[in-house]
């Protein structure tokens, strides 16, 4: 479809086609920017890029999602407030050139089926897709971890969203039928096989995450503040990653109630994520599901990033046959839930949750039974 659009708009076939997936996070939420652990999987929803070289330094780009065109020059890349959808590509292009990679002008079409503003990392898929696109079109030799870091830089330092590394990392390095366990401090990782008798079902609350960015920044500051308070008390810690539940108990008096709860979420979520990867590798899937459920409760009560719609979807999920675990996924304040469901029950589960959601709140929930898939830099 992207190819057809390209032909229609630019009157020729594209030289290069690449795609990058969205992601769902199984467990390890709001831990990445605390140097912690995450366990996402890339999903079979993609942002695709098609393009061909031009002889000059001009980029002409069309978004199929926004039905809009933009143009810029590689020698003076600035943020565009009118075509905001183009800023991810601009940021990636700018930082690649700043790192010494020589790009050429290009005609580009991109778009896909990762729902936007839904907590499935459509923006990371655009950034990683753009990086993969340049790798192919300009013949660059890019290491996959470098590609993830560069894509994140585009989001942090060009677009101006202070996210962690998880989303770009999984979109670049995901693996078919596997989740990815990542240590966000040193970026060491391993792929963990998912069982074929369980399915990942995503339920989209349909609520756009309007509060997400400001509240995300507030959480980030609260995490840093709790670390500096604990350090004043004499605890050695560079980030919440270094803090244990026992440290929190002994540091109680220096933390306000709110800081204690924020820190407790991160500390216990790291514990849950480490246990989750162990049980996925050599334990029972039921225990994995319990850890997902506990993660939701912690995000809801201690971290306070859930909302009525997400809680409703999760509570409906918890009642369904074949459900192993259910929680909100991504930054929160809307977006999606992730559910681990026995394969045989997956379709009925998705229908029942959507029906229940309609009944309870009068809202429509899209549901996707997902397949874990390869990242853009995995060949
Ligand atoms: C967003 C950010 C990620 C991560 C999650 C919460 O998706 O982009 O870096 O912090 O929220 O786990």
What is the fold's blueprint, element by element?
Layout: H1 2-10, E1 16-27, E2 37-53, E3 58-63, E4 68-73, H2 87-98, E5 106-112, H3 122-137, H4 144-159, H5 166-173, E6 178-183, E7 189-193, E8 198-204, H6 212-232, H7 245-250, H8 257-282, H9 285-301, H10 308-318, E9 323-329, E10 336-342, H11 346-361, E11 366-370
Parallel strand pairs: 3-5
Antiparallel strand pairs: 1-2, 2-5, 2-6, 3-4, 6-7, 8-10, 8-11, 9-10
Helix pairs in contact: 2-3, 2-4, 3-4, 3-5, 4-5, 6-8, 8-9, 10-11
The protein binds alpha-D-galactopyranose.
What does this protein look like?
The chain is α+β, with helices and mostly antiparallel strands and 379 residues long. It folds into 2 domains: 2-193, 2-Layer Sandwich (Ribosomal Protein S5, domain 2); 198-370, GHMP kinase, C-terminal domain (Alpha-Beta Plaits, 2-Layer Sandwich), CATH 3.30.70. It is built from 11 helices and 11 strands. Strands 1, 2, 3, 4, 5, 6 and 7 form a 7-stranded mixed β-sheet that branches. Strands 9-10-8-11 form a 4-stranded antiparallel β-sheet. α6 packs across α8. The relative contact order is 0.17. The mean pLDDT is 96. Bound molecules: alpha-D-galactopyranose. Residues 29-30, 32-33, 121, 163-164, 166-167, 330-331 line the site of alpha-D-galactopyranose.
